Amino acid sequence: MAAYETTRTAPFGAITTFRFVQSVGSLFAAIGNWNDARVTRNALDRLSDRELDDIGLCRDDISRIGALGRN
Asked: Where does the record place the YjiS-like domain (predicted)?
């Protein structure tokens, strides 16, 4: 029975290209997350204090919406 080696090294520049595409994708995801947090903060900012209290938030909580994912 014969065995063949089927693994090959990546072509020149393939890993660099993959990392570049991955970083561009991460950049777009970060921009999307930032925009989602911005839209949410704007919507919450339009609510009255009573409406915020109904959902368990206060005005100070709104400013922390975008910072939750950052450490």
From this structure: 27-62
